[in-house]
Amino acid sequence: MILSDDLTVLANALRRDRRRDPLKGRREYSQAARELADHCERMVADGNAKIAVPVLRKAVDRMTSALMYMDDSSGIVGTDLRHMMGLYARACTAAPPGPVSLARWLVALSFDGPGWPEIRLADFVPALGAEGLAELSTEVDKRAAVAEPGSWGQQFATRDLQEQLAEVSGDVDLHVAVLARNLNSARQYQRIVAALRDAGRPAEAIDWARRGLADHGGGSHADRLRDMLVDLQIDAGDVEAAVAVRRADFERRPTANAHRALLLTARRCAADAGLADWAIAVLRARVARQPTYADDLVMVLLAEDRPDEAWEAGLDHADMLSERGLIDLLELRRTSHPQDVLEPYQKMIGTRILVAADKRRYRFAIGLLRNLRDAYFAVGDAAGFAMYIDHLRAEHRRRTTFIADLDAAAL
Question: Is the model's pLDDT at 250 over the cut of 60?
Fold first, then answer.
């Protein structure tokens, strides 16, 4: 069995000299952290958590400081620290330290630390108990009372710990009230909706979800909030309202992703009759005003199994299609109508790929040329492709790298 002195040696390896090159030693540091975590995990499992607790706290403190002077752009040490913090919480549950001391350490880490690691208060509740939670609440109030008005870090720490204290209290109304103090993002509304949903209060959850989308209707968090609203409405049997939410969102921003969400919801609600024509009409009208939606129109037409309409729409707005969108459309058309793609492929190679002397794009051009060759061969015009290659050689003869790549491809 590893002794406490041995654990101390391992913890000492987590010291980091701030003068050291921040780019060096990250892998070795991560290995040391993982070795210590593995030993402590085994000790906790073997009933020796009391020995591991102080070592793990020391490890968290040292890793927190080390990350201030280390380039951890890959995130490996940050991941190690999160694991160490979770392991410390487990060890504290098995062998609780003094609850007041633990509470004060958590507050100091949140208010005085650099912003990491994340504190998950629920993990420490068994170790804190009523005494520790009361002390933590008191300390947070004290810090909040003297916080500098312009200090974002202290404001965040106050809000975060107050919200977590309300959550672990088990009082849903208190939790919602504390969360509602800062309705600055759809994410905050998500948390309120989840709390009410999990408490078996779906009507209130639906109301809060609607309010959140009215205040913060855009972005990934709003998408998740909208998903929560739709699920709640379907569970409540209000399928018309669920489909209406998706239709309104699609009208606001008729993207391929919004169309996919609309279709899935409509099918769940058995309400997809006539929806395809409506969605396509909405998108065509939007493209007429904002051609940047051309990619979405093509993708929606393909999703609705209307390849000929997608091809026509793509040709009408070829200059507005993304490179990936145009390539996908050409590839799909090439398999069924190879004659149609000969000119569009040549135009793409000339105006998008070889318009600049970018050597990184030459191999990409070679790949497109292979597709174009297959299309020429499919229509029985190998000579036409040979003439086009000769034209490219003549036009780009000064681009020696491109010519070399072309020769190597043996097209």
Answer: yes
